[in-house]
Design a protein that fits this description.
9 strands, 227 residues, four-stranded mixed β-sheet, alpha/beta, single chain
Length: 227
């Protein structure tokens, strides 16, 4: 093999290696009414993130499609998988189980696909414990409790009693803000979304996610330079 042929082979290997990046698990949490759902929707509309599809024991609604909205299974199967440690995260909410299968997460990460998790602090903590290097966690705060209350009222979905419960739950949830990588105060939705995109883009360039770098650097060092 000539020197020219060898360099061409190195170039092809280098080019192929550049496409490989480990995926990201982008976690968004917030109290109800702080803007998490809206921000999640805007991120998904960008087309670079896929939404994590949860497994649940909840009954399927007529408008829902199995495998698209949720993976619907019975309680016995969920508990069997939970006991086998098959979930990356799970929780019991209103007598129904919800969780994300570890195999689904591992496959996405290995293929360089990024997943969005719209979950509370309990799920976030489980992901951070099991997949710390892959998680980017962001907590969304309201600018004030009065503004949070106003947003919940503007929804016109809940009674005053339910809103009072949500506000009390919000106080409990906000106590966990220190366990997140980033905290954004959502006073202006456009500005918060812009900051969210900056965080996400910067995290895709983190060194430990660029699994192609070992090959690239080795090729750069080995590559001969002709003058």
């Amino acid at each position: 093999m000539t020197r020219s042929d060898k360099n061409k082979q190195i170039d092809r290997t280098k080019t192929a290696s550049l496409v490989k990046r480990r995926g990201i698990l982008l976690v968004l949490s917030s109290p109800s009414g702080a803007g998490k759902s809206t921000l999640s929707r805007l991120l998904l509309e960008e087309g670079t993130l896929g939404l994590s599809i949860s497994v649940t024991t909840r009954q399927r609604r007529p408008s829902e499609v199995n495998g698209i909205h949720y993976h619907f299974i019975d309680i016995d199967e969920f508990e069997r998988r939970r006991d086998n440690d098959e979930f990356a995260e799970w929780a019991k909410v209103h007598d129904n189980y919800y969780g994300t299968l570890r195999a689904t997460v591992d496959k996405a990460l290995d293929e360089g696909r990024d997943m969005l998790f719209d979950i509370d602090y309990q799920g976030a903590e489980q992901l951070q414990q099991k997949l710390a290097e892959d998680v980017v966690s962001i907590f969304i705060l309201p600018p004030s409790m009065q503004e949070l209350k106003s947003r919940l009222r503007r929804r016109a979905e809940d009674s005053d009693e339910v809103i009072a419960v949500r506000l009390e739950n919000a106080r409990l949830e906000m106590e966990h803000w220190r366990s997140y990588d980033y905290v954004l105060v959502n006073e202006d939705l456009n500005k918060t979304f812009a900051a969210l995109k900056v965080i996400y883009e910067a995290e895709t360039f983190k060194r430990h996610r660029a699994v192609y770098l070992d090959t690239l650097v080795n090729n750069l060092i080995a590559e001969s330079v002709e003058f």
